[in-house]
Amino acid sequence: MSTSRESAGRRGPGAKSAERRRSIVDAAHAVFAERGYNAGSFQAVADRVGMSQTGLLHYFPAKSDLLLAVLQRRDEVSDTVVEPSAGFAESVLLKARANESIPGVIQLYAVLSGEATTTGHPARAYFTTRFERLRTGTAAELRALQQEGVLSPRVDVAIAAASLAALWDGLQLQWLLAPDEVDVVACLRDYLDALFARP
């Protein structure tokens, strides 16, 4: 049984600070998803979380620090939705479906990845690294499946990896604009079925 002292320790200044930081990141996530990084101001984040800009600066000295925290949080949320035992195709489809159910995740990604292509954007390095890691990781998984005989040896795994990333991002953008007309999971499944089809 926990003592009152232990409970107090868990709810002390450190815990309150962590909760406040998390609420700021959640508020910034919403603001950046709605307005983008450039138009999403510190003041808008502060207003949403109910604190002053000075208080906000205590937790995040620069707006770019807050942006990176938001992107890290987005990755944490998105990466926890897939069972470790899921196969390659299943994990792609599970994550695609789960992302649609998490408010703001796809919108934030679409807005910031587009903005990050501009010179000097603080998230440019994050997205450049993310895409490199995604292409490399996907190609490695496909190569392993190729060696197991699951994937045709005629498939260029590097091209397939880049194509999957591009298709997924494009479908999510279309889904944001017309959610009742675009089924991201169905389109991805069709691509994966074709990719793994044996001659």
Q: Can you offer a commentary on this structure?
A:
This protein has 10 helices and no strands. It is an all-alpha fold. Helix 2 packs across helix 7. 20% of the residues are buried. The model is unreliable at 1-9 (pLDDT under 50).
Radius of gyration: 20 Å
Uncertain parts: 1-9
How much of the sequence is in beta strands? under 5%
Helix content class: over 70%
Number of strands: 0
**What global shape is seen?**
elongated
The helix-and-strand class reads: mainly alpha
Number of helices: 10
How would a crystallographer describe the biggest sheet? Answer: none
User: What's the rounded overall pLDDT mean?
Assistant: 87
| Assembly category | single chain
Helix and strand element order:
HHHHHHHHHH
Give the distance, in angstroms, between the N- and C-terminal Cα atoms.
63 Å
